[in-house]
Amino acid sequence: MARPTILVGLSLALATLLGLTIVSEQRHPALIMPMVVGVPLFIAGMISLNPHRQRFWMRVAQRIALAGMAIALLGATLIQFAPSQSPPETSGASASLAPMVYSLGLVVFLAAFAMWIQIALRQLMASRRS
To answer: With the CA atoms of 36, 41, 44 and 47 taken in that order, what torsion angle do they form, in degrees rounded to the nearest 10?
Structure first.
């Protein structure tokens, strides 16, 4: 389980870097959220490569994934139900900022949910063996 955790953490960090390089005109603080979840997941995955520390750090990764999932759901809810206002005149890159923020939030949610499901299934299998 450590290797998928590392891969998810790296993919979230790379998605953030990709999002920051594409949107060059205007940076939004929500674009950094995948990296906020991805870097701790990567660190927890690296530490959990040690068999003696794996159980504790995979649980830490599970908590980080749940926190990222909650943040993504909150962000998606705020974007979905925000009061509609007439947007000011915008150019191409900044006009597509809201869908990109929503997409990155969705990526964080899906990655965190997949991580949570993997860890829960592994704990279930381990409890049935003992």
So the answer is: -110
Say how far apart CA 116 and CA 64 lie, in whole Å: 9
pTM of the model: 0.61
Query: What's the pLDDT at 43?
Result: 92
Amino acid identity of residue 126, one-letter, is A
In this structure, are residues 32 and 16 in contact, taking their beta carbons and an 8 Å threshold? yes
Half-sphere exposure of 15 (CA within 13 A, CB side): 27
| Distance between CA atoms of residues 104 and 101, nearest Å | 5
Among 73, 61, 2, 4, smallest CA distance to 37 is for 61
